[in-house]
Structures are given as C-alpha cells and as structure tokens.
Amino acid sequence: MTSSFSVHSADGYDRLMGRWSQKLAPLLIDFAGLADGERVIDVGCGTGSLTFALPGKANLKEIAAIDFSPVFVAAAKQRNTDARIAIQEADACALPFPDNRFDRAMSLLVLHFVPEAGKAVAEMRRVVRPGGIVAAAVWDHLGGMPVMRMMWDTLAAGNESARQMRRKYFFQPMMRPGEMKQSFVDNGLLHVEETSLLIRMDYQSFEDYWAPIAAGEGPLGWYVTSLAPEERAHADTAVRAAYEGGEPDGPRSFVSVAWACRGTVPG
C-alpha cells in the first residue's frame, strides 16, 4: 500500500490534525457502537486519537492498532500506557490478523489517503467476525472543511498548480457523497448507514493555524513548502488575509464535517 499523506513529526501532525481527530474520535465510536469485552482494531491509528479514546467508552478485552507510518507507530507506542493496546506498523490493505479476530474494526481519517481504499474496507470486513461492525470516517474536503478550502481557494485563484492540487485534495477516495457507503456495500457489508459527524476547529491565531502547514505537515504543507520563495511569500500573505477576514488577527472557529459509514459483517 502507498499513502498520500505526508508526515514529518508526530508533534507537527498533532498541531495540524491530531488535536481535531481527538475531538472526532468519540463521535465515531458512538456511531460505530462499542460493548464491554470486545476486541477492536483501529486501522490507521496515527498518533492514537481513536486508539486511546476506545478504553474510555467500554471495558474492552483487546485493542489492536496499526499504521503505515513508522513515525506514527513510534509516537503511539511511546504514549501507550494500557496493556490491552498493541500497536504495530502494518498495511491497511493487508492486515496481519486472522479472519474473524475482532468484534469491530474502525478507521478514523485514513481511507481517503489509501489509493486502493476498497481493499482496506475488504480487509476490515475480513478480520471482523460475522455480526460484527466495520465503521470509518473521512473528512468531507469539498463541502465540509472551510478551514482547508480557505487555503486552497485562495491559492488557486492565481496559480494553476494550486488548482490542480485543489482538485486532487477535494476528491480523494471515499469523499464524494455516497462513495464510502457504496464501497461498504460492494464489499459485502449489510445494513450500511452513512451519516455526517461535526466538530469545530478552534484556532487562537493565524500562527496557530498556519505553523504546521508552513512546516510541511500533510498534503497542504507539502504543497506550500514546494513553492518558490516569491510564491511562498505571496501564499503566506494571501492566506493570512483570508484567515483574518478583514479583522485583526485572533481566535477563529470553523465547522468541520466528516462522512461516516458503518456496516455489519454477514453471519
């Protein structure tokens, strides 16, 4: 498997997205359901937002967490203090577990970075027992992420390469309405439901928003750090103006919406 996500450091990722995935994780767990005594796998654990939220929701027997990035795996292992949690580097499209091992499989903000996302759904179904639940969530980049559209739309107004990157960013796998639901159905899951999960991203200042992007974290950061110096200076100024919106710099709050799906493994 390959991944379209760029990560330099766990701390940088947490400033860019980890702090928001921590807010989203409990919503996915509530949607997916959870019960005492279950075995659960977190597919694409990152720095552990979902992994470490799971024990607070139920008295689980086992939590397996995998991620493709050695940076994320190392950070999650360092943060882990729960003996029930085992974290390892692995491929979402080839999970290193036997059939029917888990009661539930969950994936938070991962499938849109997996080029063959349907294979990851198939693998989650494979490792979950009959009657168990598969659930996942991805951001709605086109219609539900104004904080990211703010950057891409600003830069794309005068730059063809930004327009091309914007299209790629907005239409990653599983992001179109009904796309993830259809993948769940195509992979044999039953009673598939799709919903939206909503949080707010609260920033203290433009620096709070821009610093991890300027440092090169994630797809947005990769693009910004690839710019020539004069283009970079223009990007910094233009995105700052968009963030401030004509008012002095300071706190801003943005609604952010994720698509979420769940389905049942056939008995």
In short:
This protein has 267 residues and is of the alpha/beta class. It is 40% helix and 23% strand.
Structure, described:
The protein has nine helices and seven strands. The protein has 267 residues and is an alpha/beta fold. It has a seven-stranded mixed sheet with strand order 3-2-1-4-5-7-6. α3 links the parallel β4 and β5. The two termini are 29 Å apart. The mean pLDDT is 95.
| Percent helix range | 40-55%
Q: Roughly how many Å is the radius of gyration?
A: 19 Å
Name the strands of the widest sheet in spatial order. Answer: 3-2-1-4-5-7-6
Number of helices: 9
Order of helices and strands: HEEHEEHEHHHEHHHE
* Poorly predicted parts: none
Helix and strand composition category? alpha/beta
Large-scale geometry: globular
Query: Mean of the pLDDT scores?
Result: 95
Measured by DSSP, the beta-strand proportion falls in 15-25%
- Termini separation (Å)? 29 Å
Q: Count the strands?
A: 7
Main sheet makeup: 7 strands, mixed
Please specify the SSE layout and strand pairing:
Layout (H helix, E strand, L loop, with lengths): L9 H23 L6 E5 L18 E6 L2 H10 L5 E5 L12 E7 L8 H11 E12 L6 H11 L3 H11 L8 H8 L3 E14 L2 H9 L3 H8 L3 H16 L7 E13 L3
Parallel strand pairs: 1-2, 1-4, 2-3, 4-5
Antiparallel strand pairs: 5-7, 6-7
Helix pairs in contact: 1-7, 4-5, 4-9
